[in-house]
Amino acid sequence: MLKEFKNKLSEYLHREFHLDLSIVSGQTELSQEHLKGDKLREAITNLQISIDEDKKRKSKKLLTKDFEDGFHVCKSCKSLPRKEKEDICKWCNTFNELGAKLARHEKLFIIYQFENTNGKPDLDFGEFGKVYLFNKPEPEIMTKAKEILNLNSTKLAEEGYTNGFKFIANIVPTLTYEVRDYLLKYADLEEKDKKELKELPENSILPLNYIAEFAKGDKKLAVLRADVDNLGLIFSDGLRRYTISRIATLSRMLDLFFTGYISILINKVSEDYMQKELGNTSLKTDLIYTVYAGGDDLFLIGPYNLILDFVVELRRKFYKYTANNTDFGISGGIPIVGSKVSLEYMAKISEEMESISKSAIFTTKNKQNYLKDAITIFEKSFKYSSELKGYNTYNQRIFSNEELSKHYKKTPYDNYVNFETILSIADKIAEHMVRKDISRALAYRLLSLHRVYVSEDGKIDPVIYPKIFYQIGRNVKDEKVRNSLEEWLLRKGYSYGEDSISKENLIRNLDVILSIALMKTRGGKKDG
Question: Strands 165-166 and 147-151: what pairing?
C-alpha cells in the first residue's frame, strides 16, 4: 500500500517538478521492545540509514526526461518550463499568489481527496488533495474539507467548524495609507517609483525597494539566514531518555518558536523601530519580510540596521526559550545588499555566510575554544551577546594550537567578540559623525589603515598605533571625543554593559564597525 502510494506520488512530483522535488522514504522493523531504552535509538538509526540509502537512488525508476525542444525556462526559479508568452512557470505563479493570500487569510481548508468543488483551489495537487484559503468559509467547502485549520490562532472550534490550528510565519510589510504618505513625504524616490507607489492598492505587499527606504542612512537591505546548530546531535545524544514523546515534543517546541513566536518578535521590533528611529507612532506595518521560518531555520529580509539589531534580540529570546541552554546555538549569515538584488542572489550569498558561521571558532582568554553559535557579517563571525552564558557541552571543544593551525587558516588569538558590542561601538561612532565630531574622511582613513596594517588572520602591525594616534589628533577637535577614541583604540578598549572588547580586537574588527557607522550616516532625505 505505502509502496504503491510512493510510486504514484513520485510520478506526480516528477511530472510537475521534474527532479527539483521528490519524495524520500525509509523503513525499519519496529516492535514493542523497540520502544524501550536504547532499542528505540537503534531503530531510528536504522531508519535514518534506510532514508539515506533512498536519497542516493531517488527517482531511480523514473527516466530523466528533458524538456521538449524550444522550451523556455522560468525566469524566477530558473528550473521549470514556462509558456512562451509568460515570464514565470505555473508553480512560481501559484506560490506567488499563495504567499500574498497567506498574509491576509485566517482559515486554511485542506481536502485530502479529489472532489468536485466550486471555486478554484489555492493549491491543487490533483488526486492528492486541494488547499483553500478563506477568511469566511463557504458551506460547500466546509462539508467536504477533511481538515480545517485556524492560521496563527489557538481558538479551537471557533464558530463551530475549526478543528485545529497551524502557525505560519507569514509576516510581510504591507502598504497602509500612513506608510504610503510617509514614503511619498520622506523617501528619496524616483518619479517612476512614486507613480508606482500611488497606484499600489491598499494593504498590498510592500515591494522590497520601498522596504529599503525605511533603513537609516544608506537605503540598503539585509538578509538573515540562520538555523539551529548541532540539531542531529541534540536529538541523538541530548535526550537523557530517548522516547518518541520526547523527540516529538522537542521538534514541536522548536517549530513553535520559528513559526509562532518569530511573528510576535517581528511585530515588536518593527513597532519599536517606528517609534525610536523614525519618531512615528502612526505607521502600523511590519518591516521584516518573512521568506520562510519554521522547523529550526529562517530566512528574513528587512532594512539593514533593523536586521542587525533584530538578530541579537532573536538570539537572546531563543536563549531564554531554551532555558539558557547554550547547547541550542543559532548560526547565521547577514549579507547587506541593494534593494534591486534578486532573491536568488540573496539566498546564495546568505547561505555562504551561514556556512562561515558554522565553521567559526572562538578563543577565550583562558584559551578555551567554542564552535558555531555565531553570526557572520562582512565575512567575519561574532558571538551574539554577553547575556549568553554557560557555554559547555556541544558548543565546546578544546583544541591544541597544532590542531587549529592544521585545520583552520586563521591564527588563534583572543577573538571572543560579541556582535552586540560591535553594534554599540558603531552606533557611538555614528552619533559622533552625525554631530560632526568625527568626519567621514577620518573614518575612511582609519579603514585604509586597517586594510594595510591588519592581516586576514588577525595579526596587527604595531605601526598602526602611532598612525591612528596621528589621525585622531589631527582630525578630531573635540577633546572629549578625541580622548574616547584614544581610549578605545590605543589604551583600554571599549566597555559595554557586562562586556568589554580589547583595543586589539577592536582594531581587528574596525572594518566592520566603521562600515556600519558609515552606512548609518550616509546622506539622503531626513529619516522623519
Answer: parallel
